[in-house]
Amino acid sequence: MGKLAVLSLAVVALAVFIGERLIALRHTSLSSRELTKNYLPNCHLIEGIEGGAEDLTILDDGLAFLSTGLKFPGLPSYSDDPGKIYTLNLLDSELKIKALSIKGQFDKDSLNPHGISVYTDEKDGAIYVFVVNHPQGKSQVEIFRFVENENALQYIKTIKHELLHNVNDIVAVGAESFYATNDHYFTNEILKLVESFLSLPWCDVVYFSPDTVQVVAGGFLCANGINISPNKRHLYVSDVLKHTITVMEIQNNTVLSHVKEVDVGSLPDNIEVDRESGDLWLGCHPNGLKFMLGDPNDPPGSEVIRIENILSEKPQVTQVYADDGGVIIASSVAAPYGGKLLIGTVYQKALICDLK
Q1: Which of 46, 138, 134 is nearest to 86 (CA)?
Q2: How many CA atoms lie within 13 A of 31 on its CB side?
């Protein structure tokens, strides 16, 4: 076979491969999906949130912590200011956010917050706030103690480790221990694109404690959100490109057994768990292509999905809220409390609604 023929076959094979990959990516991104609006009553935007609330979590007493101002490669950013952590008292009828001051030897200008989690020490009631931080594009975890009477965070320490290389979300399970997701294997931005293009299932979950740092689960296309069941026996991980929530049973801190995957029909981001019912609440991206393009004339929509009885043979997956981008853009988290639903977005606003 002549050189020209070999070259022609190689070109054809490459074209077929690229075509197959593009078709697969259109499928994983749900690029052809059109969203039908599904609104909740009495929705209004949270005043003062203009740069997104990518993640949030709510204490039993109704105090919400919001991670705001994330700046991420390839995504819009509406402010050059450093990120902030806010509190929002959901029992207060005024629903006014309050910026938490940071005490201690912490570079406030470096705060670029992503995932957030809160741990309450049963011994003394101390509340620890864990924040995924990306200063200058790096990945690390900041641990603070919440000083309620000062509305402040007391800086405790920064966690850096080679296994925590692309941290997206975190769930705290002790005063200095947590599980975290890595949403990419590579740290180089070009290699990240190659990783996504090839759909390499190389993302993982890491367990960290002062004594142990270990990868405890892998095989994810893009591991985003993570949370834990109220009884601390099951770990939930969202794989945004597989449109699934993976359920794993915690045998011990570093040994997890795969239980099931639940398809949600959308691109799930962060996971919040109702402490009373055990239901999962997901902030989702209904169309991944629109999310990546970020076209203001055709903005990415928002979707909130609830999973009831996730451990049963037939979990109930329900769309609770849907918007085409006219109200909020790129929802990433949703949490219920006291008959209301608080919804955060990656880079735009935050919304609160009454649940039906």
Answers
A1: 46
A2: 12
Task: Report yes or no: 104 and 117 within 8 Å, Cβ to Cβ.
Answer: no
With 0-12 / 13-18 / 19 or more C-beta atoms within 10 angstroms meaning exposed / middle / buried, residue 253 is: middle
Positions of the chain with pLDDT lower than 70, given as ranges? 1, 10, 13-14, 16-17
Q: Rounded to an integer, what distance in angstroms lies between the CA atom of residue 203 and that of residue 184?
A: 5
- The predicted-structure confidence for 305-341, as pLDDT tens digits, reads as follows 999 999 999 999 999 999 999 999 999 999 999 999 9
Q: Which residues of 12-43 are buried (b: 16+ CB within 10 A; e: fewer)?
A: eeeeeeeeeeeeebeebbbeebebeeeebeeb
Q: Of 109, 89, 106, give the one whose Cα is nearest residue 144.
A: 106
Residue 260 in contact with residue 247, Cβ under 8 Å?
Answer: yes
**Residue 319 to residues 86, 154, 225, 264, Cα–Cα distance (Å):** 28, 38, 18, 9
Residues known to be catalytic: 114
Strand order in the sheet with 244-252: 223-228, 234-239, 244-252, 255-263
Q: Would you say the C-alpha torsion 327, 328, 333, 338 has a positive or negative sign?
A: negative
